[in-house]
Amino acid sequence: MKLILAIIQPSKLEAVKEALNTVEVFRLTVVDVYGFGRQRGESEAFRGHEVSVNLVRKVQLQIAVNEDFVEPTVKAIMEAGRTGTEGRIGDGKIFILPLEDCIRIRTGERGPEAI
What we know:
2 helices
């Protein structure tokens, strides 16, 4: 089992959800997050003064999958989350972490069956 954390542009959320549905990944958690990478924030004008905003709004997807679904899930996120054909700085990142256990609260099922 793996936990996939994907940080994407908020404008790409619906496209990524549709791409995940096509590879039969229907369970995910979406979290609003703020941060910066290479973008290092952005500058805005506020009441005539330039203000530096250090954090950029992104969306984090948290997806628990069995081993067979890791690559299709990653590929779907990459294709739907990329800006244009080449992509741009700020399109996001995908992290794949080992998932030690999963427990369905309602039934007590554990492991891959609980996902």
